């Protein structure tokens, strides 16, 4: 029984202990919760952060000092971390990617909440996978590989500018100076490859490209001999614009070898990424022999705005280093990185975060390993700390420190440096906001962005070779390779291009123009002509141009028309011949026969003139009938009066007087129309009777489209495709291969298996018509183009040859070459022209319209007057009769009123009779006085 009671007491005691433990945990949890939410009362005394970089490297030497000074400043500032001490544990990677990974993994075994570094992009790629797994943010102030900003590495933050912006700045410099191709020399690792890839993309968006990529081994075993082999290949390339993206040790070796090979002389352009300014800023002055190897080089440097804090830190830096080590942009970014971590950790504690770690079950499952992977644990507060890092916003030594949505620092900008003499000078700035400018980027942030070409500007640059003139940027490669210039083998119109029998040489107008243009260039252009075609028919010029993009030809020379589908794939020079499609058709001469007087006007015009003569005569008769006796009488007499008045007005010989105002108005306008018609008819008839006229039923391309007759075109010409595009069926198109086939097909005509017309380019047609007098160009030229020489896209040779062609045109050589090959015979000087268009109705439509409107208005006014009088007459009749008249009687009244002779007419006639009688009496009196005077005179003398 005693044992039983003891067991019961023990059980009760154990239950009470368990309850007590649970209550204690809840109380502790509540206190802990209150403490975490109460302004960081549970902050630890120390927070550990790691830092991994190469201590004895150019970046590492300044970064070490900057980080140590930043830690001091953070711990001395009571407003940050609020009593918690920041401890940064430094780890040297010794310029080794492997040691860098090992050092980073060591940090994962300790209680660090973040790691500053790594310095190397190669190490960053590997260790970022570990950071993702263990949720520890890595903040690199030196790894500039653009691909590290991808979504693949959420726990990697770059606290310096990405090479994506640096390469954009280089691309805009290349575009600013008008260069099209560059050569990239780079270290062949993640840093170099991905940086050059970004450069390639940004150049392509500006229609530029990297013509050659020269990779250098990133290892320490690379020798001057290896670099010399690479640079010798580069020297044989066409481009003279070289972008150097390397590490300082390899970069200086490349510049030294290039100087030894003469590649730092006149004509070359060297653009270095910011690795060089890192050395110049921290190790200046460099030895003179080192400076001699980089004269004229353009260098980029990460831009940091000038500020009071930056100047104070620079002064403090000089005291720390005794002036033996300068401060560069990487040191400033390393300093700000420490402050970024401090601000984020402070926000982390303010939000109730605790520093705790948990085991990674994935690592615990790995058995049979001596790596002790289980020592690495997951940072539980990693997501919250990462969020605070991305949301940080403060002003550091490098300016506003804030991340954009893509995890890049805001306002990327670079200084553009020119190495000259024993130092260097700034020639401008580049920013992602305003582009190239001679003013600091800060001056533009308060203004709207302006990336127009007119706003892009840099100071003058002293280029390699102490040259102040902008280098051309390319030369013909001195590798014994000649340009392969494709030339068509023509079987017709050989005056333009023809192959010399038994050789690969060519002659002709186009060849002479090309040779003369090349001779004007300030450099030699070694080339060879490569024939293209089967020799039996003219080749397709479009297919030949496409071979440039395939790499078979370096250019195409010949009678190549500049048309849209070809300009999409190649670049053309300035046109050296104006061209365009025209229509050639047979014609017949018109003689001045017995019916030539009808030819000045078209049939439609004659018809409208006749109608208007009758119409105007009717209108004048209506307006004059009631008040003018000359327009009254029997119907037959009135009809004759109308016809006579209409026809006699043509010669201004009408004898009838018009007395009404409306009639006179209509007659004046009609006589003006008749004057214009007479003048036009006389001029046209004179031309017909004195100038040789040619006639063709085809008037141009529009009349050809309206028919269904066959149309000829030259084999290989773009005319076939153009005619199809404007709606002419392919079944109507007939391919012709020579001028003789042109003549035969045109003479036969559509009825005998020939063609109605031939459509071809004007230079061919003019040569064809020089000895074919039976045909002429009809209509207008309906396309505008020219002939040029074709080269690959963005070829600098196309630009230089265009300038040479303009020079040939200005000095008259182009015309002399034209006269040499394309001199015309006497036939082409025949001044007979195809029949001018007859005078059509559309040329006089305005006159007829005015006349017609005047007639209609006069008639309306006249009939309104008649209706008004008719209404008064009808009302008076109703009052007298007292009854309403019928419709027929009203109509009879209206007609009688229209035909009734007006009193005005009677008074006018009486007045004219009185005037006539008075004049007759006066004449008789005068005759009487004369007779009496003669009688007296005869009596006196008798």
Automatic annotation (TrEMBL):
Annotated keywords: Disulfide bond, Glycoprotein, Ion channel, Ion transport, Ligand-gated ion channel, Membrane, Receptor, Signal, Transmembrane, Transmembrane helix, Transport
Chief location bin: membrane
Entry membrane topology: Multi-pass membrane protein
InterPro entries on file: ANF_lig-bd_rcpt, GABAb_receptor_plant_PBP1, Glu/Gly-bd, GPCR_3, Ionotropic_Glu_rcpt, Iontro_rcpt_C, Iontropic_Glu_rcpt_pln, Peripla_BP_I
Top-level taxon of the source organism: Eukaryota
GO annotation terms (biological process): cellular response to oxygen-containing compound; response to wounding
Intracellular or extracellular location(s): Membrane
Record SMART domains: PBPe
Single GO MF descriptor: G protein-coupled receptor activity
Cleaved signal peptide residues: 1-33
Stretches that traverse the bilayer: 605-623, 665-689, 844-864
All copies of domain Ionotropic glutamate receptor C-terminal, residue ranges: 484-824
Gene3D superfamilies assigned to the protein according to its UniProt record, in alphabetical order: 1.10.287.70, 3.40.50.2300, Periplasmic binding protein-like II
Family classification: Belongs to the glutamate-gated ion channel (TC 1.A.10.1) family.
Annotated function: Glutamate-gated receptor that probably acts as non-selective cation channel.
Name of the featured protein: Glutamate receptor
Species this chain originates from: Anisodus tanguticus
């Amino acid at each position: 029984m005693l044992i039983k009671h003891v067991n019961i007491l023990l059980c009760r005691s154990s239950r009470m202990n368990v309850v007590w433990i649970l209550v204690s945990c809840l109380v502790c949890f509540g206190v802990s919760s209150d403490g975490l939410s109460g302004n960081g009362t549970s902050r630890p005394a120390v927070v550990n952060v790691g830092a991994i970089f190469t201590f004895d490297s150019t970046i590492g030497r300044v970064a070490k000092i900057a980080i140590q000074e930043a830690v001091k400043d953070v711990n001395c500032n009571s407003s940050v971390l609020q009593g918690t001490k920041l401890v940064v544990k430094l780890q040297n990677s010794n310029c080794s990617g492997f040691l860098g990974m090992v050092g980073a993994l060591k940090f994962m075994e300790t209680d660090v909440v973040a790691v500053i570094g790594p310095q190397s992009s190669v190490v960053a790629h590997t260790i970022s996978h570990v950071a993702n797994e263990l949720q520890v943010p890595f903040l690199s102030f030196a790894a500039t590989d653009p691909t590290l900003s991808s979504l693949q590495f959420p726990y990697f933050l770059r606290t310096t500018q990405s090479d994506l912006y640096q390469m954009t700045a280089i691309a805009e410099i290349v575009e600013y100076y008008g260069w099209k191709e560059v050569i990239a020399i780079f270290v062949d690792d993640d840093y170099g490859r991905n940086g050059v890839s970004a450069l390639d993309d940004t150049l392509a968006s500006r229609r530029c490209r990297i013509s050659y990529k020269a990779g250098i081994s990133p290892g320490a075993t690379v020798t001057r001999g290896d670099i010399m082999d690479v640079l010798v290949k580069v020297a044989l390339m066409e481009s003279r614009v070289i972008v150097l993206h390397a590490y300082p040790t390899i970069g200086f070796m490349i510049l030294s070898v290039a100087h030894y090979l003469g590649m730092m002389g006149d004509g070359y352009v060297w653009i270095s990424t910011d690795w060089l300014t890192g050395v110049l800023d921290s190790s200046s002055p460099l030895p003179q022999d080192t400076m001699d190897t980089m004269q004229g080089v353009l260098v980029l440097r990460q831009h940091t705005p000038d500020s009071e804090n930056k100047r104070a830190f620079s002064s403090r830096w000089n005291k720390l280093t005794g002036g033996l080590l300068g401060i560069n942009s990487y040191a400033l970014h390393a300093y700000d990185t420490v402050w970024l971590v401090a601000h984020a950790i402070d926000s982390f504690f303010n939000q109730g975060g605790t520093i705790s770690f948990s085991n990674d079950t994935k690592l615990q499952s790995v058995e049979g390993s001596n790596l002790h992977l289980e020592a690495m644990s997951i940072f539980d507060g990693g997501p919250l700390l990462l969020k605070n890092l991305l949301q940080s916003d403060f002003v550091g030594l490098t300016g506003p420190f804030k991340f954009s949505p893509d995890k890049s620092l805001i306002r990327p900008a670079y200084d553009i440096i020119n190495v000259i003499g024993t130092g260097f000078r700034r020639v401008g700035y580049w920013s992602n906001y305003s582009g190239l400018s001679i003013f600091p980027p800060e001056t533009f942030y308060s203004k709207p962005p302006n990336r127009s070409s007119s706003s892009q500007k840099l100071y003058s640059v002293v280029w390699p070779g102490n040259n102040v003139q902008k280098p051309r940027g390319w030369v013909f490669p001195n590798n014994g390779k000649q340009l392969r210039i494709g030339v068509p083998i023509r079987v017709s119109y050989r005056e333009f291009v023809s192959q010399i029998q038994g050789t690969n040489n060519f002659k002709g107008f186009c060849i002479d123009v090309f040779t003369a243009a090349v001779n004007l260039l300030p450099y030699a252009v070694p080339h060879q002509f490569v024939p293209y075609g089967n020799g039996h028919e003219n080749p397709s010029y479009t297919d030949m141009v496409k071979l440039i993009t395939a790499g078979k030809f370096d250019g195409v020379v010949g009678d190549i028309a500049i048309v849209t589908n070809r300009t999409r794939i190649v670049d053309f020079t300035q046109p050296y011949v104006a061209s365009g499609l025209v229509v050639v058709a047979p014609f017949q001469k018109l003689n001045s026969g017995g019916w030539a007087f009808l030819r000045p006007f078209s049939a439609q015009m004659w018809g409208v003139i006749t109608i208007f003569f009758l119409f105007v005569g009717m209108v004048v008769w209506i307006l004059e009938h009631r008040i003018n006796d000359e327009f009254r009488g029997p119907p037959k007499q009135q009809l004759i009066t109308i016809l006579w008045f209409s026809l006699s007005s043509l010669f201004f010989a009408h004898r009838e007087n018009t007395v009404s105002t409306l009639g006179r108005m209509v007659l004046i306008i009609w006589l003006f129309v008749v004057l214009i018609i007479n003048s036009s008819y006389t001029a046209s008839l004179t031309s017909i009777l004195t100038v040789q006229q040619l006639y063709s039923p085809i008037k141009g391309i529009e009349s050809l489209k309206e028919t269904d007759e066959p149309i000829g075109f030259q084999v290989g010409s773009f005319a076939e495709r153009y005619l199809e595009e404007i709606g002419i069926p392919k079944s109507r198109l007939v391919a012709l291969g020579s001028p003789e086939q042109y003549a035969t097909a045109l003479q036969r005509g559509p009825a005998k298996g020939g063609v109605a017309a031939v459509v071809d380019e004007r230079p061919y047609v003019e040569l064809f018509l020089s000895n074919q007098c039976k045909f002429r160009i009809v209509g207008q030229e309906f396309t505008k183009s020219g002939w040029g020489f074709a080269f690959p896209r963005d070829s600098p040779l196309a630009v230089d040859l265009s300038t040479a062609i303009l020079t040939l045109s200005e000095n008259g050589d182009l015309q002399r070459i034209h006269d040499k090959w394309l001199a015309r015979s006497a036939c082409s000087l025949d001044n007979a022209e195809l029949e001018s268009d007859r005078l059509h109705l559309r040329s006089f439509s305005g006159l007829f319209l005015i006349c017609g409107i005047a007639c209609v208005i006069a008639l309306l006014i006249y009939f309104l007057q008649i209706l008004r009088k008719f209404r008064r007459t009808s009302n008076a009749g109703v009052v007298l009769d007292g009854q309403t008249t019928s419709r027929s009687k009203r109509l009879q009244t209206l007609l009688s009123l229209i035909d009734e002779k007006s009193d005005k007419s009677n008074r006018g006639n009486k007045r004219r009779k009185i005037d006539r009688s008075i004049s007759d009496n006066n004449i008789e009196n005068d005759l009487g006085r004369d007779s009496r005077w003669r009688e007296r005179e005869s009596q006196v003398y008798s």
